């Protein structure tokens, strides 16, 4: 992040980045690790939004818990909100391309499903994607 970008962050956000909460870690997860819960959960490192950010793919229900890797804004699934490393955040989305996704849960904006109306054309300023590899492809490569 450039000095100008850092300076543009609100003072409270700068404070949080400098003074992140600390907790004891008992177990760490690996990128691609398979958890045996809920019919199988795949751990996906989606760095960029924060260091260590993960998304979870629930295989049985074809649900992606994207966390902050993507957002739903005005009922439309979009790329992540601006963050410390936007380039890495966007590149992390490539890991979703091979997943059979029917539902995406985002921490900002809620849930996106195939029946959600997504009728806008992707543009460089506001790329839109649906829960399918085709629209994730558009998000990544039509910037």
TrEMBL record:
InterPro entries reported in the protein's UniProt record: Metallo-B-lactamas, NDM-1-like, RibonucZ/Hydroxyglut_hydro
Transmembrane segments: none
Domain Metallo-beta-lactamase: 16-108
Protein name: Metallo-beta-lactamase domain-containing protein
Superkingdom, taxonomy of origin: Bacteria
Pfam family, one: Lactamase_B
């Amino acid at each position: 992040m450039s000095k100008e970008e850092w300076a543009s962050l609100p003072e409270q956000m700068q404070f949080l980045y400098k003074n992140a909460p600390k907790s004891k870690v008992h177990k760490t997860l690996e990128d691609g690790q398979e958890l045996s819960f809920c019919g199988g959960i795949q751990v996906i490192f989606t760095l960029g939004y924060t260091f260590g950010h993960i998304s979870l793919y629930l295989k049985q229900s074809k649900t992606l818990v994207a966390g902050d890797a993507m957002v739903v804004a005005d009922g439309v699934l979009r790329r992540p909100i601006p963050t410390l490393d936007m380039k890495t955040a966007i590149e992390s989305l490539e890991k979703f391309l091979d997943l059979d996704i029917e539902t995406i849960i985002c921490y900002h904006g809620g849930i996106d499903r195939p029946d959600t109306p997504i009728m806008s054309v992707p543009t460089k300023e506001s790329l839109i994607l649906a829960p399918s590899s085709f629209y994730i492809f558009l998000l990544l490569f039509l910037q």
